[in-house]
Amino acid sequence: MKLSDFDFDLPEDLIATRPVRPRSAARMLVAEGERFTDAHVRDLTRWLRPGDRLILNDTKVIPARLHGERVRETSDGSGRAKVEFTLTEARPDGRWRALGKPLRKLREGDRIAFDAGLTARVATKRETDVTLAFDSGDRALQDALDAAGQMPLPPYIAAKRPPDAADRDDYQTIWARHAGAVAAPTASLHFDAELLESLREHGVAFTEVTLHVGAGTFLPVKVEDVRTHRMHAEWGEVTAQAADEIRETRAGGGRVIPVGTTALRLIESAAAGGGIAPFRGETDIFIYPGYEFRVTNGLITNFHLPQSTLLMLVSALMGRERMRRAYAHAVEARYRFFSYGDASLLLPGG
Questions:
Q1: Is the peptide bond before 102 cis (omega within 30 degrees of 0)?
Q2: φ, ψ for residue 85 (rounded to 5)?
Q3: According to the model, what pLDDT value does residue 80 have?
Q4: N or C, which end of the chain is more exposed by having fewer CB within 10 Å?
Q5: Closest by alpha carbon to 9, among 311, 327, 224, 221?
């Protein structure tokens, strides 16, 4: 299975840099068995049935992009420099791994002063990133990040424009509860209160799980044999109640449909033993064609990058050839791609 098997040509102008409003007005390509239908997210009740269950990732994106000033004691007094960080992973000891820019200006022991009185020390430096030890506890750190940080837009958006105040709402789901993600579960960004209410009235149920999406979701696959790729680990939790709800839905003949690849990866991790069970910890599950799904019956997701692990995941669910045709249709029909783009509803069994 080669990396080139998951490549496709995408016109630059199809990469969305802003979401549509209202959220549920986004377009949605429905791949139902062998059929493709052009629709909108607000039309979900046409395909979802009473008794189906949507799995929602309730992680909350933190304003993880910080601008600061490096302060270093030097003999000539020139130890100050502007630096930028993107927090990528919370460590068990309370420190954070972060991407530093420019990395060459940083040394272990440097003090960093941010806005809102937030300060940190460069605890360790590696070839690609650093570990920051903040001087604030968890609650004070969250407050300072809310005041001083910017939303960590994906590289393909950040290259086109800087984050702004609108992204505070646009890049956050309406059910976000547990802070810890540095990237949004983007399929969930299409849901608004009106859509949730219409789905409830239709008889669709909801279960919340938590997977803190890491920056590794944007890392490219660098190996030609995709089976040798190693995923980054992310922390997640499926509670006993969530596992019970999923089990009851399947027993009653309902379909379990994650909203987003993050929710899918988490519930499949929780079902690694064959049936869904409570789960709490890190997962680095890698789903590519040949994977046997244990609890997932469909998926709501956005359109993904060429040669990405997410494109491999949807190809595992629907088949490579069917996804190749779906993406060709999406390009021809000028769907909007990636995090702020349009959606797809993937139902492999029709």
A1: yes
A2: -130, 150
A3: 86
A4: C
A5: 327
